[in-house]
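Hey,
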Amino acid sequence: MTDSPTEASQGAGEGPGRGPPGPWRRFSRSHARAAATALLGASAGAAYAHFIGCRTGTCPLTSNVWIASLYGGAVGAVLGWPNRRRDARERLPIEPG
């Protein structure tokens, strides 16, 4: 049994001094973050194509609002994709030997 309050409050992989993950931390590690950034990227791509885009129609990405929004959504999803959680063994320094 642990007598220390810090040892008792530590969960699996949460580290010392950290409580349970809050809603923002859970969101930042979920795939909902990728969906949210994809939506932001699609909106930014559509806005760029509408307000700034190519007027002659020769630009492949910005001549069509739909293509620009799909491209922006794909870029947003890639940027917002959650990172792989590192295992505790990967964070430890390698001992010389």
